[in-house]
Design a protein that fits this description.
- This protein has 207 residues and is mostly beta strands.
- It has one helix and nine strands.
- The chain has an eight-stranded antiparallel β-barrel.
- A hairpin with a 4-residue loop joins β6 and β7.
- The longest helix has 17 residues.
- The radius of gyration is 23 Å and the shape is elongated.
Amino acid sequence: MVFLLGSQPVLAQADASTGVEPRWYVGAEAGKQIRTYSIDRQGFGQFTSSLGAQGAYAVSPRLLVQVGVQYGRGNKPNEELQGSGSFAHYPQTEQITRSWTVPVQLRWSLAKDPHRFRLESIAGIGLCFFRQRETGTNTATATKFVKTNSGTNGYLDAGIGGRLRLNPQFDLTADLLLNVNMARPNNSYFPIAPGFGSGLSLQYKFR
């Protein structure tokens, strides 16, 4: 008993020296992305803004598994399209009226020992359920149309994140990510249909 009581301060110092991190995290995030969305293998680029929630589990002091859900909306400016048929020349707007994305990430700390600020490499996948609306007007006939589509796309994500420890319970993270649409739309400028995103989140750590 005396040995156990005497060993408690030593164990506590050992935990502090090895940088044992909390196991569970929850957080809220805000982000901005441009993605290539694909409907029937036809892709279109779209900016979206999103809000979301996330939960994470520290597998080890350096490896974090994170799962989230993001709600987003977006649109792009009117553009004059040239074509053939009844809508040969008209202004058109494409809008993501809603999207739900479920990202799963592995976050690996680039620092062996815990610091107040550290960089993390990020790799993951995301599943996005979205609805798109197209509106347009034929300038020659003043005929308007509205078309609604929906789809489900999968993405590969990779990038880098920065984690700042505000206090023992809260972390602030900022991420920069590249994304690739796994559907590989036929009309994409690049076979990998690339995109880019950024996010800011506040996480609470359960001790």
